[in-house]
Amino acid sequence: MNTIKRASTFILTTFAIIVIANSSAFAQKAPEFSNDLMMDDKTYAYIIADKLEYRSIDGSNPIMWDIKGYIGKDRGKFWFKSHGETIPTQSEAHMEFQGLYSRAISPYLDVTGGVRYDLAYEEHNKSRGFATVGLQGKAPYFIHFESGIYVSEAGNISADLEAEYDLLFTQRLIGQPIVETSVAVQEVPEWGVGSGLNNIGLGFRLRYEFIREFAPYIGINWERKLGETADMARAGGGHVGNLSIVGGVRMWF
């Protein structure tokens, strides 16, 4: 009798375990396969006006922009970049355009290659083209940087570097220190470029993100030409350095 009772208890317990296990497995059943789950195979498009600002500088008060965008997948993207400034009161403008292909070589680093084209509207309009290769991405401590080496159609070699960091005071109020510099191997007098270290720029912008896609900002920016580039600016009656108050908007789509 005890044997029958123990056998019955064992059978009921085993049955209960099977029912509970099947219910749990059903509840945790994986969703049906969908391409929406394959996030690494999608094509993305993105454009950002990282800087679109007015600068208060005695005698010029330029409007400056830094716009970039891409289309592509996680590993490979086609980029368009435009950077420049214009002085509406003097009908002057300096513009730079780049068309690049980037390839991810680590989770935080891309190698880039492509072309760059410069335009300058002054007393005498001029233009020049470059082949370029560079690196962009995030350095340690999440410092975002972009760098490039350029070889002009005349064989002149130059390079530049820009680095910035987002300092979160709150989730919406963000400070952004920026440093940029450039160097040239040969002097190019018609573009006011000397050999060696050409310039350095330091800035700080404080933006408020009403939404992530739209953030007005104010800030301060300091720039100074160096070495032979500064000498060329002095000889032409131009400014060697300036300190400006800036105001603008950062937005992306």
Any overview of this molecule?
14% of the residues lie in helices and 58% in strands. It has helices at 2-27, 227-235, and strands at residues 44-56, 63-72, 76-87, 92-106, 109-121, 126-139, 143-152, 157-164, 167-168, 173-184, 196-208, 214-225, 241-252. The protein contains two helices and 13 strands, in the order αββββββββββββαβ. A twelve-stranded antiparallel β-barrel has the order 1-2-3-4-5-6-7-8-10-11-12-13. The model is unreliable at 3-8 and 10-28 (pLDDT under 50). The protein has two domains: 2-31; 45-252, Porin (Beta Barrel). It is mostly beta strands and 253 residues long. The longest helix is centred in the first third of the chain and has 26 residues, at 2-27.
Layout of strands and helices, then pairs:
Elements (H helix, E strand, L loop, with lengths): L1 H26 L16 E13 L6 E10 L3 E12 L4 E15 L2 E13 L4 E14 L3 E10 L4 E8 L2 E2 L4 E12 L11 E13 L5 E12 L1 H9 L5 E12 L1
Antiparallel strand pairs: 1-2, 1-13, 2-3, 3-4, 4-5, 5-6, 6-7, 7-8, 8-10, 9-10, 10-11, 11-12, 12-13
**Biggest sheet record:** 12 strands, antiparallel, barrel
Domain tally: 2
Question: Briefly, what CATH class of the largest domain?
Answer: Mainly Beta
Low-confidence stretches: 3-8, 10-28
Strand content: over 45%
Shape category: globular
* Order of strands across the main sheet: 1-2-3-4-5-6-7-8-10-11-12-13
What would you call the structural class? Answer: mainly beta
Termini gap:
78 Å
The count of helical stretches stands at: 2
What is CATH's topology name of the largest domain? Porin
Summed up:
By secondary structure, the chain is mainly β. Helix content is 14%, strand content 58%. It comes from Fodinibius salsisoli.
